[in-house]
Design brief:
Strand order of the largest sheet: 1-6-5-4-3-2
Distance between the termini: 22 Å
Strand content: 35-45%
Helix content: 10-25%
Number of strands: 6
Structural class: mainly beta
Length: 110
């Protein structure tokens, strides 16, 4: 998102602050994420993240991952859009749709 004027930049900043704009990302990952359930726990290097299948966005089910960053909750909704075989890489590639619900630095990368 790029503002073409200072006025637009201020308006966008205000809209982000009041959560009127929702961030949406797509990521390509190696492997196929398993379907989440209430009991899934993803082990992370610095914390334990829990995953549940508790959200529906635009009629599509999303899993929820809550991975603490700097001691604060960092919630991201995610779903697998598609998975394809990649013989060149020796495995599968998955396209994920990610919707961060909190605004932690580097939330998607972690």
């Amino acid at each position: 998102l790029v503002a073409k004027s200072e006025r637009a930049m201020k308006k966008f900043s205000q809209m982000f602050a009041t959560r009127q704009i929702q961030k949406s990302y797509y990521a390509i990952t190696f492997g196929k994420p398993r379907t989440s359930s209430e009991d899934d726990i993803i082990e992370c290097t610095t914390a334990t993240a829990t995953t549940t299948n508790a959200a529906v966005v635009d009629g599509k089910p999303f899993s929820v991952i809550d991975y603490p960053i700097d001691g604060k909750s960092a919630v991201t909704l995610w779903r697998t859009v598609t998975t394809i075989s990649s013989p060149a890489l020796g495995g599968e590639l998955s396209l994920l749709h990610l919707l961060p619900k909190t605004g932690r630095n580097h939330q998607i990368r972690r």
